[in-house]
Amino acid sequence: MLQFEQTFMDFLIEHQERFNRTYHFLILMNSILNSAKRIQFYYQTGALHGSLGLAGSVNVQGEDVMQMDDIANELVKHYLRRSGRVVHAVSEEEEEIIPMNVEGGRYFVYYDPMDGSSNVPHNLPIGFMFGIAKRNLEGPEDFHLRAGREYIASGMFVIPTGTFTLAFREAGCWRFHIDETMNYVKPTRMALPEGRRTWEISYNSANRDYYDAAVQKWLAENERKYAFRYMGSLAGDFHRILTNGGMFLYPAIVNHPDPKKNRPSGKLRLMYEAAVVAFMCREAGGSAVDERGRDLLDVAPEKPHQRTALYVGSGPLVEEIGGILRKS
Ligand code: AHM
Ligand code: MG
């Protein structure tokens, strides 16, 4: 007896029809899927073709750009533009906002085509992460940099692992797995587990002495209650938290002995990293805050590449640390 798993596209068609939606979003998602499959392919075969090295240029955040980042960025731009549905995009790899179908487009897409760049030379998990907001269809469009709360969807592909997680506003967070025909199949609704038995804490422990004193104190008192896991790729680390519960944190660095190494605004980017996972987490029953203990989804970006600290995961942990941050 042949068994057929539901594909992502079948799932999405049903979803759009159930909620009486247009097919524009489907066309947009098709372009995102096409990009992800191509990135998956290049990443899997990159080592064979010698393209895992550094490209030698520097991106807008001053970090090394790898060939893979460039390839992934070009792929995503190509497919987004071709969809005809995107007004403009923000990419981690480009300083300027990228205009696309400025007149007729419907969506804004904020993306990081290859997040977790330190994993690239090792072919270890990286993420293609994106947030989607919708143009104001009635009346003039007055702004394009939206807070996470205004996203209509956000998602991430963990590459080359082959998982895709997508959250819809008020319609849940879903995970799919790539099959042998490169289709994402088998929708599973994600819900953070309430029981603490599986919870994990995930952060770069090399930085712990440089966090705010209140964050250090909380870690010292609480972290041993949970397993510690860190792979240095937000998509991979958050993927685990979504399944097992717990908290991923990338706090501000404020106590570094070399003041030049402080990062009072955090490291991660708000629009295409932090808000993307915060949105997914909310749809899975969790929450996220920034260094001031504000709900991360309420933080309105002032510039496309704005950074933020991030605490994301199971509600009770995020609320506890959020309360401490609001007081400190
Ligand atoms: P990138 O955009 O340069 O790849 O940096 C983002 C990554 C995240 O995926 C990850 O959570 C974090 O940076 C890891 O940083 P660190 O190496 O400081 O632990
Ligand atoms: Mg990144």
Which strand-content bin applies to the residues?
A: 25-35%
User: Count of helices?
Assistant: 7
* Assembly type: single chain
Per CATH, what is the topology of the largest domain?
A: Fructose-1,6-Bisphosphatase, Chain A, domain 1
Mean pLDDT: 93
Task: Give the number of DSSP strands.
Answer: 17
Write a structural description.
The protein is of the alpha+beta class and 328 residues long. The chain has two domains: 8-189, Fructose-1,6-Bisphosphatase, subunit A, domain 1 (Fructose-1,6-Bisphosphatase, Chain A, domain 1), CATH 3.30.540; 196-327, D-Maltodextrin-Binding Protein, domain 2, CATH 3.40.190. 31% of the residues lie in helices and 25% in strands. The protein is built from seven helices and 17 strands. The chain has helices at residues 8-18, 24-49, 67-83, 213-222, 234-244, 270-283, 315-327, and strands at residues 54-58, 64-66, 86-91, 98-99, 107-115, 126-134, 151-159, 163-168, 173-178, 184-189, 200-202, 227-228, 246-250, 268-269, 287-289, 307-308, 310-313. It has an eight-stranded mixed beta sheet, sandwiched between helices. Strands 12-11-13-17-15 form a five-stranded mixed beta sheet, sandwiched between helices. The chain is globular, with a radius of gyration of 19 Å. It starts with 7 loop residues before the first helix and ends with a helix. 45% of the residues are buried. It binds 2,5-anhydro-1,6-di-O-phosphono-D-mannitol and magnesium ion. The site of 2,5-anhydro-1,6-di-O-phosphono-D-mannitol has 13 residues, from helix 5.
